[in-house]
Predict the 3D structure of the following.
Amino acid sequence: MTVGQMALQGSSAQTAASADVDRAAVTELESARGRELRGYARHLGLTDDEAADAVQEVLLRLWVTLDSGTAIGQPDAWAFKTLYRLCMDTHRWRRRAHGLANRLGLGLTASPGADAIDRIAVWTAAERLPERQRLAVYLRYRADLPFDEIGEILGVAAVSARSHVSRALATIRATLLEEEDR
């Protein structure tokens, strides 16, 4: 066996050992703090299903981060902080979706399932828009960018970006109201 082969064999053994340590750290965190993590997500306003999904996402991100070689001194603190950020992202996304639906004049229902259906209908209608309008709406309501930045990205003035979004919203509103009448 050559020195290079021994180095590769040693390297793969270290990688396997590292993966086992990463897996053990994530499993240990889930066993020790999983219930608390789910409770924290519920406390932050997620449904039971959303909380379970968010905790799984946090554990996956932890594993990927550890596997990349990044040292995390306090995995449980890291997990709670990451979970908090995921929950806030979920709330921001909902707020933007509600804002868009309200601007379209679509009153929202209280049911989470119906809310998802409303979001799908809005973004499906947005997919049918002309390219500039579609991009402007996406950048405004998905990327949460101000009109100045949208204008820079599209290569137009901020006032034109605002106009693209306004026209797009009018088209989406008309499309959804037409579909609702059917």
About this structure: The two ends are 75 Å apart (CA to CA).
